[in-house]
Write a structure and sequence with these properties.
This protein has 122 residues and is mainly β. It has one helix at residues 66-78; strands at 17-29, 32-33, 38-40, 43-45, 80-95, 98-114. It contains one helix and six strands, in the order E-E-E-E-H-E-E. Strands 1, 2, 3, 4, 5 and 6 form a six-stranded antiparallel β-sheet that branches.
C-alpha cells in the first residue's frame, strides 16, 4: 500500500522479524470510511525486506452523510479527490522463535485520486 513517491515499510533491524496479521485496508474521505474493509494477506518481513500490498478497494452500497456526499460530488466534478488509504490490524515482532511483542497497527496513507469523467448530477 504505497502511493507514488512514498516508501514502502522496510525492516531496518537485522535481529527482528515482523509478522503482519489480521490487517484490514479501507479508504476514507474526510475521516469517514467510504470503502468496505478488505483483509490483506498475512505477511512476513525479514531484515531489509519490503512488504507491499495492492488492495482493490471498492465502494459498494456504503452510506455516507449528506454533508459528505455534497463535498465528494464537488471534488469528483473538479476531477481530484483526496482520500486516505488506512490499514488496521495486528503486528507481531519475533527474534528467533521468541515473540517480543504483539501490537495494534494503524496506518494512514494520504492519496490523491485524479480522473476525468462526466460531471456527477446533484
Amino acid at each position: 500500500m504505497t502511493d507514488k513517491g512514498q516508501r514502502p515499510p522496510r525492516n531496518p533491524n537485522p535481529r527482528i522479524r515482523i509478522y503482519y496479521q489480521e490487517l484490514d485496508a479501507y479508504a476514507s474521505y474526510r475521516d469517514q470510511q467510504i470503502a468496505q474493509p478488505i483483509l490483506l494477506p498475512e505477511s512476513y518481513q525479514g531484515h531489509t525486506e519490503i512488504v507491499e500490498w495492492s488492495p482493490f478497494l471498492h465502494c459498494l452500497l456504503l452510506p455516507v452523510s449528506p454533508f459528505l456526499e455534497a463535498h465528494l460530488r464537488e471534488d469528483c466534478n473538479v476531477g481530484t479527490v483526496r482520500v486516505k488509504v488506512k490499514a488496521d490490524g495486528r503486528v507481531k515482532w519475533k527474534a528467533g522463535s521468541r515473540v517480543l511483542g504483539k501490537y495494534h497497527l494503524r496506518a494512514s496513507c494520504p492519496s490523491l485520486l485524479m480522473f476525468k469523467g462526466q460531471e456527477i448530477p446533484p
